[in-house]
Design brief:
mainly alpha, 12 helices, globular, membrane
């Protein structure tokens, strides 16, 4: 008798309902799931889907160079398509168990490459209109804060997942452990992987530097509870952390893309940069302060 393979349902391909945004749950994840089922049937790897999303996202950015609203709309549709694939690659990886270090590298850089393309296209579009070098300086400043917003949103999401699903359900990293692993890696055995690990260590150190009270709380858990948080704490922490998940989602893709699309519709793409620097930065600072206050309270209880 032949063995019948049963594909996991949609919810099984999600990281967690706690950390999913409304638009993702009702639009990107269901469509990504359908793409993942198709790619699985065609034996397409998650990494191939990620590479496809990179090219589609870069093509979207190029469309925003043009003054034509019709071409801009094509770019918007391409960017939505790219994000569908970005959803599908993770769902496909969880569906098939095909997870790899290369996949983590590609997935981590995909969105960055999309927005580098978008920023460059907007700058090239506005430079001849009298902005000159100033639009490039504005874009560089925006890009710096964009990276911080995305990094901290990802960090807080993985903190929540750690106490929701445990280590197996979270990608939260600890820089001392990463540095130990880095020392064991040989350049000759995997130059690309070790280079990525060097960048990832720096990325994680930056996240940890912004969260001193959380680091203090985790040190207490490691020393007093041997790294295994008691159940009462996990339940209480998740209750405090859950309201912050909406901010991690707003600082990720959907909110910023809505602002980008509005700025393009009114032919004022520079407004998108100001939105990131003002509104999203205010949201970032609020999220950090509130999370740190929660961690300080739990430090006393632990």
């Amino acid at each position: 008798m032949s063995e019948t393979k049963v594909s996991p349902n949609l919810e099984a391909t999600l990281k967690s309902l706690d950390t999913e945004e409304f638009i993702d749950i009702h639009f990107y994840r269901p469509i990504g799931y359908r793409w993942a089922l198709l790619f699985n049937k065609l034996n397409v790897s998650p990494n191939s889907v990620t590479v496809a999303s990179i090219f589609i996202g870069i093509a979207a950015g190029i469309c925003f160079y043009f003054q034509s609203l019709a071409i801009n709309i094509v770019g918007m549709l391409l960017l939505v398509w790219a994000n569908m694939y970005d959803s599908a690659d993770g769902q496909l990886a969880r569906m098939t168990g095909k997870k790899s270090a290369l996949g983590r590298i590609l997935d981590g850089t995909a969105g960055d490459l999309w927005f580098i393309s978008i920023y460059a296209a907007i700058c090239l579009r506005l430079t001849p209109e009298g902005w000159g070098i100033w639009i490039w300086l504005l874009a560089a400043t925006t890009g710096f804060f964009h990276s911080k917003q995305a990094a901290m949103a990802d960090y807080y999401r993985n903190i929540h997942l750690l106490f929701l699903k445990g280590k197996s359900g979270s990608e939260l990293s600890h820089s001392p452990q990463l540095k130990e692993n880095f020392k064991k890696m040989k350049w000759r055995d995997g130059f690309i992987y070790k280079l990525f690990e060097a960048f990832y260590i720096n990325y994680t150190v930056g996240q940890e530097a912004w969260t001193p009270r959380f680091q203090e709380m985790m040190n207490i858990i490691r020393e007093k509870y041997d790294g295994q948080a008691p159940e009462w704490f996990r339940t209480a922490f998740r209750a405090k952390s859950l309201p912050l998940m909406k901010y991690t989602n707003m600082l990720s893709f959907n909110t910023r893309v809505i602002a980008l699309f509005v700025s393009l519709f009114i032919n004022m793409p520079w407004l998108y940069f100001l939105f990131e620097i003002t509104v999203l930065n205010a949201m970032l600072l609020y999220m950090i302060r509130r999370h740190e206050r929660v961690c300080a309270e739990f430090c006393k209880q632990l």
